[in-house]
């Protein structure tokens, strides 16, 4: 039996590894764009997702598993616009983002084998965790980005963020080495800002320039006083 769910108010189909062909036929017939491969909320038991190679029309893919699964077949999905990868096991698989020129929405844990992330120039939303670089210059090409979440990462500054002129929503969470917000003052379209557990942060002076902010939340940031607006 085909199993449906909703993610972010969108109808999605949960792929059953015992029923892949029927599930995909139902998705295509009913124009369900969001495909979910999960051992957590679904019944996916295989150690790979090689079946997606036969369905290059997939545009929206979520992978959510407890154990490692070989998802290298995603590189056949050249038309992907949304991709979410949440693997709780140690995940060091290579992802070459030059395969996804149409990607607009990306949620994943960074790894050393992340290649050509800067090629995703059409991104509108990026949620990235465990980013190991000291700054955000790799994101400078994301001119269309409207939402950016950087969580549990090693960034020390926000260099590169000043180029994201369309950014409207920014979340910085548990970036324990972050000391400076320099560059934020250029984000005149920013309306929603959350900074939490960035305990090395030295100043928030840049926020004075953000005249369009509607929501501001600063908590647990060392010597910086909590602010909730």
What this model shows, in words?
By secondary structure, the protein is mostly beta strands. It has two domains: 1-122; 152-229, Leucine-rich repeat, LRR (right-handed beta-alpha superhelix) (Alpha-Beta Horseshoe), CATH 3.80.10.10. Helices cover 4% and strands 28% of the residues. The protein contains one helix and 14 strands; from the N terminus they run ββαββββββββββββ. The strands form two sheets. A twelve-stranded mixed sheet has the order 1-2-3-4-5-7-9-10-11-12-13-14, with helices on one face. A two-stranded parallel ribbon has the order 6-8.
What would you say about this model in short?
It contains one helix and 14 strands, in the order ββαββββββββββββ. The chain has one helix at residues 20-29; strands spanning 3-7, 10-14, 34-38, 60-65, 82-87, 95-96, 105-109, 114-115, 125-129, 147-151, 169-173, 192-196, 215-219, 227-228. It is elongated and about 55 Å long.
What global shape is seen? elongated
Strand content: 25-35%
Return the structural class. mainly beta
How helical, in percent, are the residues?
under 10%
Strand order of the largest sheet: 1-2-3-4-5-7-9-10-11-12-13-14
**Average residue pLDDT:** 93
Number of helices: 1
- Low-pLDDT segments: none
Any idea what the radius of gyration is?
19 Å
Whole-Å distance between the termini?
47 Å
